Amino acid sequence: MKRLCPVSVHSFRADGTVMDLAAPSAEEVDFTAIAARLSKIARFNGTPHGVAYSVAQHCCMGAEAILQETGDHKKAALFLLHDAHEYLIGDIATPARDLIAGVLNVNMTSSGNSFIGAVCAIKHAWDAAIYQAAGLPEPDAWTNSDRHTVERMDARMLRAEVTALFGNHAAKQLPYSKPPKTRGAITPWPAMKAEEAYFKLLCRLIGEDRARDHSAISAIAAATSVI
Questions:
Q1: Residue by residue, what is the 3-state secondary structure of 128-150?
Q2: Which of these, 67, 133, 194, 217, could form a disulfide with 29 (CB 3.0-4.6 Å)?
Q3: The CATH number of the domain covering residues in 10-223
């Protein structure tokens, strides 16, 4: 895959070795690391009181809702992995992204979209590597139905999460959407539960062998079985 920039950008792996974030590669993708890190990244910048609502839980609940509503394993897998790039670059919350773009636009003529464009390019490149590792079509190859399902479920989950975590008055700030058929209420899970649920569902959707072929040796990989 094409490098994102000419210089290496080093980032630690869990074992203390480093990888190059500027060189997206399916060989670099580690599904146990995805499950572990997304379980510790808080949606909404950690704003709700109490236990953080994680990106891993968001992805699991949305993917399960797709299964409940359509029975389509491929679309559920596409949704489960749609935020997986955040295990490498973090969750750049939309308000923060828009603020940075706005400040750039004020201070550097016509630069407002350069930041958003760069973030999108990074996400797109690592998404391609992640979906390739999962044996799934890269976003550029998604059907209109695939894209619509993932985007609509993301929007539906957002409104349902805002309602559950902030209340109905907050949900009125968003367009109405049909509540997703989640398995259980949207109540924040502890990080370990979210990590285990994410990896177990990934094994179910893409196959245990493939999930483990792209995983470091870890306690979760040894303890998790396909449901």
A1: HHHHHHCCCCCHHHCCHHHHHHH
A2: 133
A3: 1.10.3210.10
pTM value? 0.90
Dist. CA 25–CA 125, nearest whole Å: 9
Structure-derived torsion over alpha carbons of residues 181, 185, 190, 194, reported in degrees to the nearest 10:
-10
How large is the angle between the packed helices 191-206 and 55-70, nearest 10 degrees?
40
Q: How many residues does the chain have?
A: 227
Burial of 87 (0-12, 13-18, 19+ CB in 10 A): buried
Q: What number of other Cβ atoms are within 10 A of residue 83's Cβ? A: 21
Strand partners, 10: 20
Distance between terminal CA atoms of the chain? 34
